[in-house]
Amino acid sequence: MDSLTDAAFVDLFDRIAEYIDLTNVTKSSDIEYEMLYAITLLKRGIRKAKRDSTKKKWGGKVKLLYILGRDGVPSKGKKLRGKPRVSFARRAIQFAEAHPRSRLALTLTYGKKTAQKILNKRLQKRLRTLAKKK
After folding, report:
1. What pTM value is reported for the model?
2. What residue segments make up the domains of the chain, in order of their start?
């Protein structure tokens, strides 16, 4: 996770947040618990799925969640080989502490839908103030 830029990590977080409920998360262990819960739900869905394409799609999500929870994203840079990696959960908490008004921090506090509503209200307010200045 330490090899990813902040923008790439936020994109990865948004994809993961579609499958995990990240409401009222304050510790990295909470995120890891939610990831394990999502893995069990997806595995149950794989067993009950009727189409092979659905099984393949959800199997890929299970693999992604498992790898991110276990050891983060494998780095491809030569400088980071052999160094301990920061896990997905720990990097998310660190990013939220560093950027408390970001989408990621709001998602960890309020959940994905409410965070999006808050960001939309902020955008509308900013647009209104810009329109008044002209």
Report:
1. 0.75
2. 6-133
